[in-house]
Amino acid sequence: DAGVTQSPTHLIKTRGQQVTLRCSPISGHKSVSWYQQVLGQGPQFIFQYYEKEERGRGNFPDRFSARQFPNYSSELNVNALLLGDSALYLCASSFSGGSNEQYFGPGTRLTVT
Amino acid sequence: QKEVEQNSGPLSVPEGAIASLNCTYSDRGSQSFFWYRQYSGKSPELIMSIYSNGDKEDGRFTAQLNKASQYVSLLIRDSQPSDSATYLCAVMGTYKYIFGTGTRLKVLA
């Protein structure tokens, strides 16, 4: 079975631009979470979606938004990019998003110049 | 106090030895705990989950949980050079995982 997939793999953007990252969960999984990981740190929680509803939001500014589609895939949008947004963006899927195990995709490496 | 604390390392162990990785957490109400392995430049890979006090074994890996002490650990037996990676401890909060900063493990051949 396919694991979590993310696109694109790498992305280079300029300050002030907007970016959309995409994620497809493992088949049968209904919950998607987004994390930001900067070098030397653990992943930081951004959002969790379950059945197309936002279940949780981390301590990120309103420039970050996300949505989940009827097929359970998800998009993360970041507006007005800052240099500090440069990071590895990880998507994780789980069956229901409760205490279920989360499985990570390969990530999207975003570089903001 | 950080919500999830890990020693950043590096922890160096010789090949064949037992590697012991430790993690403490601050939320006494936490119920679910996870260990992930992350190779440089890659995404985290789930190794173990543990929900009850005591030990849970899976192959060369043993997770240990002590909720009273708010402590979770991962033992890797017969460590191999391929185990060299960063090990992330994650604690389940409300609808989110809270990660530690990870411990870098080096297994010396």
Q: What is the structural class of chain B?
A: mainly beta
Question: What string gives the helices and strands of chain B in order?
Answer: EEEEEEEEEEE
Whole-number radius of gyration of chain B? 13 Å
Please tell me what the overall shape of chain B is.
globular
Sum up the structure in keywords:
A: mainly beta; seven-stranded mixed sheet; B: mainly beta; six-stranded mixed sheet; five-stranded antiparallel sheet
Structure overview:
- The complex is a heterodimer of chains A (113) and B (109).
- With 113 residues, chain A is mainly beta.
- Helices cover 0% and strands 50% of the residues of chain A.
- In chain A, strands 2, 4, 5, 6, 9, 10 and 11 form a 7-stranded mixed β-sheet that branches. In chain A, strands 1-3-8-7 form a 4-stranded antiparallel β-sheet, with no helix packed on it.
- The model of chain A has no long low-confidence stretch (mean pLDDT 95).
- Chain B has 109 residues and is mainly beta.
- Chain B starts with a strand and ends with a strand.
- The model of chain B has no long low-confidence stretch (mean pLDDT 94).
- The chains are: A mainly beta (113), B mainly beta (109).
